[in-house]
Amino acid sequence: MEERIQHKDIIAVYPGTFDPVTNGHLDIVARSSQLFHRVLVAVLRNSQKSPLFSTEERTEMIRSAIGKWPNVSVESFEGLLVDYARQRGAKVIIRGIRAVSDYEYELQMAFMNRRLAPQLETVFMFPAETYSYLSSGLVKEIGLLGGSLGGLVPQEVESRLRRISPSSSSLRK
Ligand code: PNS
Predict the structure, then answer these.
(1) Which positions are annotated as active-site residues?
(2) Does the pLDDT value for residue 92 go beyond 70?
(3) Which pLDDT belongs to residue 84?
(4) In the structure, what pLDDT confidence band is assigned to residue 6 with cuts at 50, 70 and 90?
(5) Among 5, 7, 64, 159, which is least packed, fewest CB within 10 Å?
(6) What angle do CA 33, 19, 23 make, to 5 degrees?
(7) Residue nearest to atom 19 of ligand 1 (CA)
């Protein structure tokens, strides 16, 4: 039987805009759920990125995709991530890195978060290679233009994108 080493008692927060959640995000959730006692997927409210989906929609889409991991839950947050993590008793922030292009932004955030809350550790994880080119921005563009998203997002996400008329939507990341 496969041995599962979970860092006992460690609560990890996996924050993001998740507009919408992709299978790349879920791959990181799956890996984190194996490592940490509890994983909280934290959806940013009022993002400056003007999300296509409301906070509630983004949260619902994640909720319907995480049922198979009993130690994973989702909620939204606003304000500073470090404050939210502290309120939830989390010791770890999880971020997924796909390519070198993600690195600079992620490093900046990790150092800034460390300055704000030195006790919080940022842990970077890599999704499966299959998802290394996947982004929420591309998913929106392809989905809204009628392209196939099979294997890239949960069915629920694809259906929701299909229901949105391209003329009334924003294609921003
Ligand atoms: O999926 P994203 O858009 O790359 O996620 C960015 C997110 C939500 C992790 C980041 O914007 C964030 O933490 N926002 C909360 C406000 C905050 O703490 N800002 C300072 C970050 S150093």
Answers:
(1) 25, 49, 98, 136
(2) yes
(3) 98
(4) low
(5) 5
(6) 45
(7) 80
Ligand 1 centroid to Cα of residue 81, in Å, is 7
Q: Check: CB of residue 14 under 8 Å from CB of residue 42.
A: yes
Superfamily of domain 9-132: HUPs (3.40.50.620)
Domain locations along the chain: 9-132
Sort residue 164 into left (φ over 0), alpha (ψ -120 to 50) or beta: beta
- pLDDT on residue 76: 98
Q: Tell me, rounded to whole angstroms, the distance of Cα 134 from its chain centroid.
A: 13
pTM assigned to the model:
0.92
In the chain, the percentage of residues whose pLDDT exceeds 90 is 84
Per the CB < 8 A criterion, the answer to whether 40 and 12 are in contact is yes
Taking CA atoms, 15 is separated from 4, 19, 26, 91, 100, in Å, by 24, 12, 12, 13, 20
Mean pLDDT over each residue of the chain, to the nearest integer:
92
Q: In whole angstroms, what is the distance from residue 145 CA to residue 148 CA?
A: 9
pLDDT at 167: 47
- Both tokens of residue 53? 């989906």
Atom of ligand 1 nearest to the CA of 113: 22
> Taking a C-beta distance cutoff of 8 angstroms, is the pair 45, 18 a contact?
no
